[in-house]
Design a protein that fits this description.
The complex is a heterodimer. By secondary structure, chain A is of the alpha/beta class. Chain A is built from 23 helices and 22 strands. In chain A, the strands form five sheets. Chain A has a six-stranded parallel beta sheet, with helices on both faces. In chain A, helix 1 crosses helix 2, helix 16 crosses helix 17 and helix 16 packs across helix 23. The N and C termini of chain A lie far apart (72 Å). Chain B is of the alpha+beta class. Chain B contains four helices and nine strands, in the order βαββαββαββαββ. In chain B, the strands form two sheets. In chain B, strands 5, 6, 7, 8 and 9 form a five-stranded antiparallel beta sheet that branches. Chain B has a four-stranded antiparallel beta sheet with strand order 2-3-1-4, covered by helices on one side. The longest helix of chain B has 13 residues. Classes of the chains: A alpha/beta, B alpha+beta. At the A-B interface, loops of A face helix 1 and helix 2 of B. The complex binds thiamine diphosphate (TPP) and magnesium ion (MG). The site of magnesium ion (MG) has 7 residues of chain A, from helix 19.
Chain lengths: 567, 161
């Protein structure tokens, strides 16, 4: 049967089991939107194309499925770039469809033409310009396959207007595509190596990262750590891959990592790094990172190995397959830790935990942002999916909200994109309408995609925004305080809208707390409403995130701030 | 670490933008391409790219890994560490000016250079060889007055699979 390009597109999306698209129409995609009008596909009309990509990204991070966007050519396409780069840095599977001018006009500077495949080449896993109708169905199939296979990532498919109205035979059973799935089974010899290294280690430590979540290996990692009593620390992207309430959990490591995680990294003699890429925010100075340890690095991407940190045993493999092999090997060869040695190591860690716990100082007069997060945790009992913006709000969330499950902490790690949290929360809530979905936001970041409040209101996507409003671009201000003698150059954000009124103008409930005793009441009320809610917490303005490893310093060298330790 | 020239041979799917992707990976990450040759193999859909880059073994391994990540890249081989032969080709135009004419004819004879165009006012030579042979030829051509020259990048083939 002959079908039009627009019909093939939706049939192909059905084949890929796509149940929702985030998009924004325009001239080059009029025909596609006309077909959408006739189809059953669910479509969320965002208010900015960046929001569409972040929403699809949030959906993908929470579900592990491929997120899908549809936008027009030219400015619609360029507006997606920040979102695509965000997904690319964190290896999130997306397929972004962009409209394009008719093939005959490409290269002519036609109205709303732009070379979006050229622009996004360095920030996509791959991209395609579909030049003929016969390429359409195979390209879509390939795009989804590439997005989700191996180390996942965003794929862009550029759809010229004339291709989408041309006709061809459509027969999904006959579409053949190249296979990108590489053999991600590591060599058995490597398991024996890890076994030996574990056997001779007195102070082993696991470092878990985003690759464990993407590889759906959290349960195996947890099993491994618990069975052999190996303590675990994680990167920002790894939060949730090991239960945050488990006694073996040390919290996040790195620039704003816990004292005890960073001390453990510096003192361990074996580091099992799984699904991480040793970002500079994690390692501090490379020379002193895990300086006393042999490092085993398990990752699916050969280009991550020996990129930043030179390791002793690289294992290129899918995190799930590798951990499963490792667990099996250790059991078959009767690996058992030396109980006295392990007790000593865990005891040392407990001492560090006691010496410098994660804490902050309450003065009874001001709302402390950390307290808002702790109260949110208490009220939700941790049963929520949390997105964040970028800055102090993001770091405090990572520190003060323990995540017990994978895919429940959703944050832009690699690119650090302000404006990510709200649209991402919308995408998450679309996937899990019955879950409490909360964006922990900053007053600067929230204004970068504030227009998405309209999307939430229109579709009754009942996300909650916990705004930690310090009237500053707080994280930048913190650096100015610490490294630029308090010259607060352009970080004061006191000129801001009344967020409660703004929320109401969008049809979203607005609540405010200005005193510490109001925090719980406002949170209770906000969380209980069956509406999108923005809660404006006026928090202590110059609170800093501690511990902090100064840039270029070794991670065992942390500044803890002037706070008293409350215990 | 010691920097040296590496010859990298890449098999790719022959897609319109595959070269842009490869150049982008290298340029975007700050690696320089010293020379480059591209052509289809016996199969039209598959091309071979031979490029040279300067770097330590560590850097080159990193480049190989980055290239391997590209969807259209099939294989990446560093021919520097295996037995392989290397060739370059130059085309040179020498103007037969009154004062140089005799000197040029003599040099062409002694060096057994291949003349592919011979006109009244100029000749064009085609010279192939490995890098040192080409450099040697260039040293002898320079005093004759090179009017114009084109030099291919290195192509290379490993002796065994
Ligand atoms: C799009 C974008 N622009 C600039 C930055 C640099 N930046 C990082 S954190 C930050 C401040 C964020 O302020 P706010 O959202 O109020 O969060 P806070 O740190 O105060 O919690 C800025 C400007 C960024 N990460 N992203
Ligand atoms: Mg702020």
């Amino acid at each position: 049967m002959k079908l039009k390009g627009t019909q093939i597109l939706f049939k192909a999306l059905e084949e890929e089991k796509v149940d929702i698209i985030f998009g924004y129409p325009g001239g080059a995609v009029l025909d596609i939107y006309d077909q959408l009008y006739k189809s059953d596909m669910k479509h969320i009309l965002v208010r900015h194309e960046q929001g569409a990509v972040h929403a699809a990204d949030g959906y993908a991070r929470a579900t592990g499925k491929v997120g899908v966007c549809l936008v027009t050519s030219g400015p619609g396409a360029t507006n997606t770039v920040t979102g695509i780069a965000t997904a690319n840095m964190d290896s999130i599977p997306l397929v972004v469809f962009t409209g394009q001018v008719p093939t005959g006009l490409i290269g002519n500077d036609a109205f709303q033409e732009c070379d979006i495949t050229g622009i996004t080449r360095p920030c996509t896993k791959h991209n395609f310009l579909v030049r003929s109708i016969d390429d359409l169905a195979p390209t879509i199939k390939e795009a989804f396959n590439i997005a989700r296979s191996g180390r996942p990532g965003p794929v862009l498919v550029d759809l010229p207007k004339n291709v989408m109205v041309a006709e061809t035979e459509y027969n999904p059973a006959n579409i053949k595509i190249r296979n990108y799935e590489v053999a991600y089974k590591p060599a058995p010899k490597k398991m024996a190596n890890v076994f030996e290294m574990l056997n001779s280690a007195k102070r082993p430590l696991i470092m878990t990262g985003g690759g464990v979540i993407l590889g759906k290996a959290s349960a195996l990692l947890t099993q491994l750590a618990r069975k052999y009593q190996i303590p675990v620390t994680g990167t920002l992207m790894g939060l949730g891959s090991f239960p945050g309430t488990d006694p073996l959990w040390l919290g996040m490591l790195g620039m704003h990592g816990t004292y005890y995680a960073n001390m453990a990294i510096s003192h361990c003699d074996l580091l099992l790094a799984v699904g991480v890429r040793f970002d500079d925010r994690v390692t501090g100075t490379i020379e002193t990172f895990a300086a006393n340890a042999k490092i085993v690095h398990i990752d699916i991407d050969p280009s991550s190995i020996n990129k930043n940190v030179v390791v002793d045993l690289p294992i290129i493999g899918d995190t799930k397959a590798t951990l499963s092999d490792l667990i099996k090997f250790l059991a078959e060869h009767n690996y058992a830790q030396n109980p006295a040695q392990r007790q000593e190591w865990l005891g040392q860690i407990a001492e560090w935990k006691e010496k410098v716990p994660l804490t902050y100082c309450q003065n009874g007069k001001e709302i402390k942002p950390q307290n808002v997060i702790e109260t949110l945790y208490k009220l939700t009992k941790g049963d929520a999916i949390i997105t964040t913006e970028v800055g102090q709000n993001q770091m405090w969330t990572a520190q003060f909200f323990p995540f017990d499950h994978p895919n429940t902490f959703i944050s832009s790690g690699g690119l650090g994109t302000m404006g990510f949290g709200l649209p991402a929360a919308i995408g998450v809530k679309c996937a899990f309408p019955d879950k409490q979905v909360v964006d922990i936001a900053g007053d600067g970041s929230i204004q970068m995609n504030i227009q998405e409040l309209a999307t939430a209101a229109q579709y009754k996507i009942n996300v909650k925004i916990v705004l930690l409003n310090n009237g500053y671009l707080g994280m930048v201000r913190q650096w100015q305080e610490l490294f630029y003698e308090k010259r607060y150059s352009h970080t004061d954000m006191t000129y801001a809208p009344d967020f409660v009124k703004l929320a109401e103008a969008y049809g979203v409930v607005g609540l405010r707390a200005t005193k510490p005793e109001e925090v719980e009441t406002v949170l209770r009320q906000g969380l209980s409403l069956d509406r999108p809610v923005l809660m404006d917490f006026r928090v202590s303005r110059e609170e800093c995130v501690y511990p902090m490893v100064h840039p270029g310093d070794s991670i065992s060298n942390m500044s803890l701030g002037s706070r008293e330790m409350i215990n | 670490m010691e920097k040296k020239e590496h010859i990298i041979s890449i098999l790719v799917h022959n897609k319109p933008d595959v070269l842009a992707r490869i150049a982008g990976i290298l340029g975007g990450k700050g690696y320089n391409i010293e020379s480059l040759c591209v052509n289809a193999t016996t199969q039209y859909e598959i091309s071979k790219i031979v490029m040279t880059t300067l770097g330590s073994q560590e850097t080159v391994t990193r480049i190989e890994n980055q290239l391997q990540r590209l969807v259209d890249v099939i294989t990446v081989d560093d021919l520097t560490n295996v037995e392989s032969i290397h060739r370059e080709l130059i085309l040179v135009r020498l103007n037969l000016t009154a004062d140089k004419k005799e000197q040029i004819k003599k040099a062409v004879d002694t060096n057994k250079w291949k003349v592919i165009v011979s006109a009244d006012a100029y000749i064009i030579l085609e010279i192939t060889g490995d890098q040192s042979q080409i450099d040697f030829a260039l040293a002898h051509l320079a005093p004759l007055g090179i009017a114009d020259i084109t030099r291919t990048g290195i192509i290379a083939l490993n002796l065994e699979n």
